[in-house]
Write a structure and sequence with these properties.
Strand content: under 5%
Distance between the termini: 60 Å
Number of strands: 0
Organism: Actinomadura barringtoniae
Largest sheet: none
Family: Belongs to the UPF0718 family.
Subcellular location: Cell membrane
Number of domains: 1
Shape: globular
Protein name: Permease
Structural class: mainly alpha
Keywords: Cell membrane, Membrane, Transmembrane, Transmembrane helix
Length: 305
Amino acid sequence: MLLILLMAMQGPIRRGLSAPVMQSWMTVFIAVVVQAMPFLVLGVALSAAIATFVPPTFFARALPSRPALAVPAAGVAGAVLPGCECASVPVAGALVRRGVTPSAALAFLLSAPAINPIVLTATAVAFPRNPEMVLARFAASLLVACAMGWLWQRLGRADWLRPPARPSFEGQGKAAAFWGSVRHDVMHAGGFLVVGAMAAATLKAVVPATWLRTAAGDPAASILALAVLAVLLSICSEADAFVAASLSQFSLTARLAFLVVGPMIDLKLFAMQAATFGRGFALRFAPATFALGVLVSAAVGAVLL
């Protein structure tokens, strides 16, 4: 019946899809999914490898026993994950399942997409005349990640964070358990990635471009505007530096906010975090991360830029 309906209405559907708004929507949707999917698969593979091959006691030995010290250690460890924010969510979920304290896993989740070598190299290439942007992005992102980890350790409650669930593969070989975990996480996280990409494309298509030009004239409003834009656009952290560099009408501090907030909280990330840790967690964690990201970006920008 659906195929018959589509065949009967193919003329109106074709005209609707050829409209400029729909062309923009499809471009953004496909771009977000194509950018994010390889790194989502990378994160899922790392998550499955951690769950299958790494002994549970490894992380207890690798991280400091005191949570207050484990948070910055996990934040700095985020530099070794060569991926974007889509990869960090399943890896953070695997760390929580392996017994890592949630505050340290959350610090890793926030820092990994923003301070890894690939992202910092892309930032240096995008801002060849402003090399201080690399240091500012590293410092601001690490500060936000550690601060959110300590904040969760201080104020977070166990019932706010749902431990990530996964099917049991006990009794199977390691290879079967690994591929079973990969299939489960790709289907689970990939669906929410598509939902987030659809939301980002919808908002990108309806936000007037004149709003950006108006906001750029006010220093405080420009920082908040680019932070909100980073949430709406949901660009991969390995490509966002080039988008930020193109927004030349905004100050360097405002563009720093774009680079700090985007990899930590955007529409697709909110959907993936809600799927992994629960909607109650995402509703508390995302606004706090956004507010802290804006404040730290403004402070670091005032000092370094």
